[in-house]
Amino acid sequence: MVSYTRALRHPSFRYLFLGQAASAIGDGVVIVAIALYVTQTTRSASALGVVLCAQTLPMVALLLFGGVWADRLPRHRIMIVTDAVRAAAHAALAVIILSGRASVVELASIEAVYGSARAFFQPAYSGLIPQTVPEELIGDARALTEWMNNLALLIGPAFATALVLGVGAGEAFAFDAATFVASALLLARVHPRARGVSAPTSSLLRELLDGWREVRSRSWVWVTIAVFTGSVMCLYAQWYALAPGIARRVYGSAGVFGVIESVIGAGAVCGALASVRWRPAHPLATGLAMTLMWPAQALAFALGAPLVIVIVCAFGTGFAFSLMMIWWETALAQHIPPQLLSRVSAYDWMGSLALLPLGYVLAGPLAAAFGARGVLEAGSAIGVVLLALALAPRSTRELRARPAAPTAPPRAQGAALERAS
């Protein structure tokens, strides 16, 4: 934890970290709250797929534009605006649910607004983290933010399950709205440092093409994105659309889905802690190999394996993905020019999620035709093949982390950062 405390000594990173800790816990609540609420009120995988699709489709469509604007404008200002929009959207949804019952149309409409705002938030966030710490602490800052996100993944689903099944879904969405307000207030105190050479602003199309050329020039980037495009559609989408129903039929309660999500979060927290000491020579290849635990966990669940086996696999999935995300985000920050980082991050998010809406929409009809468990089993098998293919490029297998620059005394680091702010 020594590395973590070094990053937290820098005020701008500390405010960013605390704000995103609040909103990440809220997001962890919402993803499970939506799944449980729609499953409870409609008992339809197709209805859940529609709502989840409504959230992701506008996000995917707008991510590239979000990346361009995040490279043009102050990133923390963009994040404040998007936090305000998301707070208003989920506050409105909380009021609707507490007043009666939200229809699928109402849920889908509000989640579309939420997803649109997130399209501008995510590239800005990815580009802002390196601006809040010195260069030699970027990897540590990434590890700490991933640890925080994973702790939220542990707390959020458990809290969501307790709220939705014990109190109500309206309270869950009200809680999420409050976390975005807290995040916006803390972001207002962030003063990012300048990083990289500012390129002159050109046309939107030109800037999009510049980002695409950067992605295309590195096979370790575009192949990894392409692999996750297919894996997310075939595995991630099917998991979130079908797993609550499978949990109810096979394990006796939809709440088991929330428990499994919390165990994934526990594994992810441990993975982020492990990243402080474990820094393999080839981090991207190691991370991709470890993520094969993801389809293994989904397959065990779909086959109705004993719950203890599913839980062990879920812990392994969280552990592997946590390390993979830390090493991936650090690699992007170290190897991509700073003035292009948000655009490359936007292509990463858009590419990885491009087919997610289609996966959500197809989940219900496929489950009706072949059975929910059969669809998840097939998705798991496809996931194994795709993740194995991610290791094909030589540049992926040989990519090394850049060694950290010599660390200045903490007071000198802080003073330099504040002057740059």
Description:
The chain is mostly helical and 421 residues long. The chain has a single domain (2-191, 207-401), classed as Growth Hormone, Chain: A, CATH 1.20.1250. Helices cover 81% and strands 0% of the residues. The chain contains 18 helices and no strands. It has helices spanning 2-8, 11-42, 45-72, 75-99, 104-128, 138-167, 169-187, 204-216, 219-250, 255-274, 283-290, 293-302, 307-335, 341-353, 356-370, 372-389, 394-398, 410-420. Helix 4 (75-99) runs antiparallel to helix 5 and helix 4 (75-99) packs antiparallel against helix 7. The protein is globular, with a radius of gyration of 20 Å. The two termini are 26 Å apart.
How would you describe this structure in keywords?
Growth Hormone, Chain: A; globular; mainly alpha; disordered C terminus; 421 residues; 0% strand; 81% helix
In short:
With 421 residues, the chain is mainly alpha-helical.
Distance from N terminus to C terminus (CA atoms, Å) equals 26 Å
> What is the CATH superfamily classification?
MFS general substrate transporter like domains
Largest sheet data: none
What is the approximate shape?
Answer: globular
| CATH class division | Mainly Alpha
Could you list the spans in which at least 5 consecutive residues all have pLDDT below 50? 405-421
Percent helix range:
over 70%
Number of spatially distinct domains:
1
Structural class: mainly alpha
Q: Which sequence of SSEs, written as H and E, runs from N to C? A: HHHHHHHHHHHHHHHHHH
Radius of gyration: 20 Å
CATH fold-level name: Growth Hormone, Chain: A
| CATH architectural arrangement | Up-down Bundle
